[in-house]
Design a protein that fits this description.
152 residues, 4-stranded antiparallel beta sheet, 1 helix, globular, 5-stranded mixed beta sheet, mainly beta
Length: 152
C-alpha cells in the first residue's frame, strides 16, 4: 500500500449583504474522491518520464472529524478536535456537532482505503453538522464504513 499524505483544502465564503447576511449552502465532504497516481512496482513515486503503472482509484467517504480552528489545526500535537454526540442504531452511527457562534471550524474528510484527506473551512454561520456512517460486518465504523454528511 502506498503511503501518501496529502491534504486538500476547500475554502468557502459566506454570501450576503451587510444588512442581512445570507449563508450560502454549507460546503460538504465529497462523497467520493478519485485519485490518479503513477507508481513503480515498489509503490514509490516516479520521476517524470519513468516507466510506471497508471492507477486511478475512487475512495468513498469513511468519516469526518471537526476541529476548532483553521487549516493546520489537525496537524498540531494536541489538536482542538470537537467531540460529537453519537447515536447508534442497527449498523448506523449518527454523529452530530454543534458549533459555537463566531468560532472557526475545520472539517477533515477521511476516505476509505487512502490516506488522502480533504479539509474544509466552514463559513461563518454554519451552526451544526451531522454525519451518518453505515458499516459492513463487525469492524469499526471508521475503518469499514461509508458516510454521508449534512450541515446547516
Amino acid at each position: 500500500m502506498r503511503s501518501i499524505a496529502i491534504v486538500g483544502f476547500v475554502f468557502a465564503a459566506a454570501a450576503g449583504t451587510a444588512a442581512a447576511p445570507a449563508l450560502a449552502a454549507a460546503p460538504l465532504c465529497p462523497a467520493t474522491i478519485t485519485v490518479d497516481t503513477r507508481v513503480d512496482l515498489q509503490g514509490k513515486p516516479l520521476p517524470p518520464g519513468a516507466w510506471a503503472d497508471d492507477k486511478r482509484e475512487t475512495s468513498k467517504l469513511a468519516f469526518v472529524a471537526f476541529y476548532t480552528g483553521h487549516r493546520g489545526e489537525e496537524l498540531k500535537a494536541s489538536p482542538a478536535q470537537l467531540k460529537p454526540e453519537q447515536k447508534e442504531e442497527n449498523k448506523k452511527m449518527t454523529e452530530s456537532w454543534t458549533f459555537a457562534p463566531g468560532s472557526p471550524v475545520l472539517a477533515i474528510c477521511h476516505y476509505k482505503g487512502t490516506e488522502i484527506k480533504v479539509g474544509i473551512e466552514m463559513p461563518q454561520g454554519v451552526q451544526s453538522c451531522e454525519s451518518v456512517m453505515t458499516r459492513s460486518g463487525s469492524k469499526s465504523y471508521h475503518t469499514a464504513g461509508t458516510a454521508t454528511m449534512s450541515c446547516k
